[in-house]
Amino acid sequence: MRQTVYTGDIGTKTFEIILKLKSLANPKNVEGMARYGINPKNTLGITIPALKAILREVGKSHELALKLWDSGIHEAKILAALMDIPKVVTEEQMERWVKDFDSWDVCDQVCSKLFVKTTFAYVKARQWCKNDEEFVKRAGFVMITSLTVHDKRASDNVFLDFFDLIKEASTDDRNFVKKAVNWALRQIGKRNQPLRVEATRLAHEIYGISTKSSKWIARDALRELEKYWTGQRNSP
Fold it and tell me: What's the count of helices (H) and strands (E) in the chain, helices before strands?
């Protein structure tokens, strides 16, 4: 179903949505989220289904998304990603938002629900994978992961071109980076059989680097890809 576009007063609606978000605050959920590594700062503990319900009520709006993001509220940022319109998102907006990432879930939601659908997705993936800031770097690899799912028409070579970035970042032992690197490697390998062959080969190369993070990334990826080779999982 095609979603409506909000055309009312942006300032008033921003205020109403923030009041709604605050009314849904659940401190116990915040505690639980923190145990999963989600930053509790400015977090209300609202579920994704509740945010989607607000989106269905309000509709899409680029201007409203920008205002919600600027509120600094954790869930408002996620709602902004769901509400924004990819075709009007600019590089400048993407660079500004990625620097505001302070939690893995906001990073993942924004990249997989919004940024991956923009015309700048591939450029930003490569740029951010080379960035030293933890969540910016994570964003780059989440973009790669999301592109393997969203870009059905891309050739295998498009994803093989990301292997240099994956290998280079495999020695980064920061938790949110190494998990994203691993995720990207696994997702490329699950795209089709030829890429599975190459991803498996790369995983063995990464294991040979012999750092703690590279070994973890390689072992976990190989464990996942092995399920496809042995028929424990259906091929994508």
Answer: 14, 0
Query: Alpha-carbon distance 124 to 110, whole Å?
Result: 13
Q: Enter the tokens of residue 192.
A: 């089709």
Residue 136: which residues within 8 A CB-CB, separation 6 or more? 98, 99, 101, 128
How far apart CA 226 and CA 122 sit, in angstroms, is 28
Per-residue pLDDT averaged across 150-175, rounded? Answer: 98
> What is the token pair recorded at 213?
């993070």
Rounded to whole angstroms, the Cα distance separating 227 from 196 reads 11
Q: DSSP secondary-structure letter at 103?
A: S
Mapping DSSP onto H, E and C, the string for 131-177 reads CCCHHHHHHHHHHHHHHHHHCCCCCHHHHHCCHHHHHHHCCCCCHHH
- Encode pLDDT of 21-45 as tens digits: 999 999 999 999 999 999 999 999 9
The model scores a pTM over 0.90:
yes
Burial class (CB in 10 A: 0-12, 13-18, 19+), 194: exposed
Mean pLDDT of 172-184: 98
pLDDT tens digits for range 87-109: 999 999 999 999 999 999 999 99
**Can you tell me the distance from the alpha carbon of 20 to that of 115, in angstroms, rounded to the nearest whole number?**
26
Q: Which long-range contacts (CB under 8 A, 24 or more apart) does 164-169 make?
A: 165/126, 165/129, 165/130, 165/140, 165/141, 166/141, 166/202, 166/206, 167/202, 167/205, 167/206, 167/209, 169/129, 169/137, 169/141
What are the chain's domains? 1-84 (no CATH), 94-231 (1.25.10)
